[in-house]
Amino acid sequence: MSIDQSTAAKVAKLARIKVEDDALPALAEEFNNILGFIEQLNEVDVEGVEPMTSVTPQRLKRRVDEVTDGNQQPKVLKNAPDAREGFFAVPKVVE
Amino acid sequence: MSDLNKLGLAEARDLLRKGETTSVELTNDCLKAIDAADALNAFVHKTPELALERAKAADARIQEGDAPAMCGLPIGIKDLFCTKGVDSQAASRILEGFKPEYESTVSQQLADAGAVMLGKLNMDEFAMGSSNETSVYGNAVSPWRRDGSDAELTPGGSSGGSASAVAADLCLAATGTDTGGSIRQPAAFTGTVGIKPTYGRCSRWGVVAFASSLDQAGPMTKSVRDASIMLEAMCGHDAKDSTSAELAVPNFEAMLTGDIKGKKIGIPKEYRMDGTPAEIEALWADGAAMLKDAGAEIVDISLPHTKYALPAYYVIAPAEASSNLARYDGVRYGHRATLEAGDGITEMYEKTRAQGFGPEVQRRVMIGTYVLSAGFYDAYYNRARRVRTLIKKDFEDVFAAGIDAILTPATPSAAFGLGEMTEADPVQMYLNDVFTVTVNLAGLPGISVPAGVDKQGLPLGLQLIGKPWEEGDLLNTAYALENAAGFVAKPGQWW
Questions:
Q1: Contact B387 A79 (CB under 8 A)
Q2: What pLDDT, on the 0 to 100 scale, is given for residue B406?
């Protein structure tokens, strides 16, 4: 499978990372090298093998559905690049 | 006493208990060593005031007779651990200025046990790298040099700052984290001991996530005994990490008898790889001979899917990273790009992430995005997860056949020069983890023990892989290997 520039651009868009047009050819080539390495996996017979979900067999723990934490608004906002009136602030989302 | 920074954890602990030194003295010697070692670029956020405050508190505890194992011992903390009120940025520009309002469980447990944090240690950005060259802080430098050369060498990665700091005696020990070999490879490159425990032993809470199904914290120390002391303080169940194991943590140090009579040590034939230097092959054979002399039985074994571990890892780890790193969006913490008039929220995300992530992190996030995208999920991600099942089964089969531990080289080479791999294809760098990554995929404990030096005078390590949850037995085998290898080389001080 080979990745062209338009696929590289699409992946960058999906990952929300801005890549300038002139950087796309090199990026596509890097993807192809890495994917070429990954292609080795096609040699393995995985018929009937379950995909691993947890390396240690375990049931995820459950607890009562109740509030155990909260009331930490100043702490939550402390590291925000832009916080106003108790909220995270972002550029305009809808016109 | 002087040069107390050169002590290991066990020696310093014993001196503290005998009242022959104080935590403040130990801490001051480390702080002096750190200030004289800026050339190594190991400590990237120094916290001397906090350290002295904790040292005084530790001395008071010791006086009162309340001295847990780590009490008063000065250590470094990898920048991946969130530490309350102290910069914690995973060596990334995107977390510039981030000062967590909380403390990671592992660093909290160490603090509760009385350990003194000296500061935060350099690493590869988001723990993605094998040479500490992807850090926003610049390269960490190894204290080791090749005989007759002043070329700067890598301390390995991603826990490069931790390895450099321990090897250069800037601290008594340090925390590391290991997703594909990030504790064991730098330990091997710097003549130090590093153990990655079984997945689930150490809480991941408050450790900046890279690949959640693989990440584990562990200690990097000057001896196997020190590793057992510090690992015990780091381990334990934590309700805040749903994958944390509800198992009692044994007294690992008490299990160091050095007696490995009758233990079966497996030598996997698939770890003999083309291009491995003869010195590493020889070291491996020597290690097997030492364990045999100590009474172990050496058994040839096969782990048939070994070859596929790295390609599986380079699907699974980037996939998990792309998901974990989605949180860095310029909204809640860290860096936000300066926007131009008319830029909306999408531009904010895209510009923030392009500026905030370095090239290797961007590459892995995008590879992860690709392998998880519609149409490729089965071909890449699900296939890799199936291969992972087979890799784990390889280990289960040999353990079921009676093998107690597996001996392999830790790395395919000694430390390389900083900048030497810059022009290489990223896959070449990934090959550094060829002997270590299987252990993360199978969730097993693995330890790197310094076992010799190459002809240029650089340290080489051997890896021992143990059964799940049997770190105590693994540490004991490592202790026997350490005793037999008698590694004592130290880097000459040039910095």
A1: no
A2: 98
Q: Mutate which of A1, A13, A16, A54 to test chain B, going by most B C-beta atoms within 10 A?
A: A16
Q: ipTM > 0.90?
A: yes
Across-strand partners of B267? Answer: B300
Mutate to test the interface with B, among A24, A44, A63 (most CBs of B within 10 A): A44
- Test A11 with B97 for CB contact under 8 angstroms: no
Q: Using CA atoms, how far apart are residues B163 and A34, in angstroms rounded to an integer?
A: 28
For B402, half-sphere exposure in the C-beta direction (CA atoms, 13 angstrom radius) is: 8
Question: Do the chains contact at A52 and B392, CB–CB below 8 Å?
Answer: yes
Cβ contact A51–B382 (<8 Å): yes
Tokens standing for B470?
């049997």
Closest-approach residue (CA) in chain A for B318: A34
- Four-point Cα dihedral B469, B474, B476, B482, nearest 10: -150
pLDDT band with cut points at 50, 70 and 90 for residue A95? low
Q: Output DSSP code: residue B38.
A: G
A92 band by pLDDT with thresholds 50, 70 and 90: confident
How far, in Å, CA of A4 to CA of B110, rounded? 49
With cut-offs at 50, 70 and 90, classify the pLDDT of residue B423: confident
Q: Is B78 a catalytic residue?
A: yes
Q: DSSP secondary structure string, B309-363? A: HHHHHHHHHHHHHHHHGGG-SSSSSS--PPPPTT--HHHHHHHHHHHHS-HHHHH
pLDDT band for B394, please (50, 70, 90 cuts): very high
Residue B194 is inside which H or E element, if any?
strand B193-196
Residue B284 · residue B298 · CB < 8 Å: no
Separation in Å, CA B407 to CA A48, A50, A59, B8, B392: 31, 28, 32, 25, 17
Hey, how many other C-beta atoms are within 10 angstroms of the C-beta on B260?
24
B178 burial class (0-12, 13-18, 19+ CB within 10 angstroms)? buried
Which one, of B190, B192, B195, B143, lies nearest residue B415 by Cα?
A: B190
Distance CA B141, CA B45 (A): 16
pLDDT digits (tens, 9 = 90+) for B277-307: 899 999 999 999 999 999 999 999 999 999 9
Find the largest Cα–Cα distance for chain B: 73
Residue B66: which H helix or E strand, with range? none
Catalytic residue among B158, B164, B228, B448: B158
**What is the rounded CA–CA span in Å between residue B13 and residue B29?**
15
Per-residue pLDDT reduced to its tens digit, A24-80: 999 999 999 999 999 999 999 999 999 999 998 878 888 899 998 899 999 999 999
